[in-house]
Write a structure and sequence with these properties.
Keywords: Membrane, Transmembrane, Transmembrane helix. The protein is mainly alpha-helical and about 170 residues long. It has one domain (about 5-165). The chain has helices at about 5-30, 40-45, 60-90, 100-125, 140-170. Helix 1 packs across helix 3 and helix 4 (about 100-125) packs antiparallel against helix 5 (about 140-170).
Length: about 170
């Protein structure tokens, strides 16, 4: 039995939005504590160049591009986990379900997945494969980044639902 997951709409779009929102949060949090906006996301490049991790405070373009690529690919990966988990959960729920219940499930799952991602990133994986945000940000700022990531997992569906409701409302006489 195949799970109903639309690759672009359920994985790529939420992954890119989550990656973009968390990248913006990384930059904003870095600026708030007096660091370069590009430093935290560039730190992810320590996966490729571990010996250059200290150079990400003033990142070279290769650190920034590599960090952005890894960050967004991982965001899409977590969005895939989110989409398939949600599809599995929805498959077990009755076909006739309320829209609000689906929104609650999406928010609950995105929240849980964000906690799992943070736990995985900082407790499970070896230090070499942490996101590297900790080289430039403290725990409160990293928390903001993960909250932005979780919001990004849900945002495309909230916008899609809002647009659908507006079309329905304007179509009524």
């Amino acid at each position: 039995m195949a799970l109903e997951v639309r690759p672009l709409e359920d994985i790529v779009l939420p992954g890119l939005v989550a990656g973009a929102l968390s990248t913006l949060a990384l930059g904003a949090c870095a600026r708030l504590i007096g660091k370069r906006a590009t430093a935290p996301v560039s730190a992810v490049s320590h996966w490729v160049w571990p010996q250059e991790v200290n150079q990400t405070a003033r990142p070279r373009p290769r650190h920034l591009v590599t960090g952005l690529a890894i960050h967004h690919l991982m965001s899409i990966g977590w969005a895939a986990v989110n989409a398939y988990t949600l599809a599995a959960v929805q498959e077990t729920v009755e076909a006739a379900r309320a829209s609000r219940a689906e929104h609650r499930r999406r928010v609950a799952l995105a929240s849980a997945l964000t906690v799992v991602a943070a736990f995985s990133d900082y407790v499970i994986v070896p230090k070499r494969f942490t996101p590297g945000f900790e080289f430039h940000l403290r725990v409160p700022q990293i928390t903001v980044v993960y909250v932005a990531f979780g919001a990004g997992l849900v945002a495309p569906f909230v916008v899609e639902d809002f647009c659908r409701r507006r079309r329905v409302a304007t179509a009524r006489p």
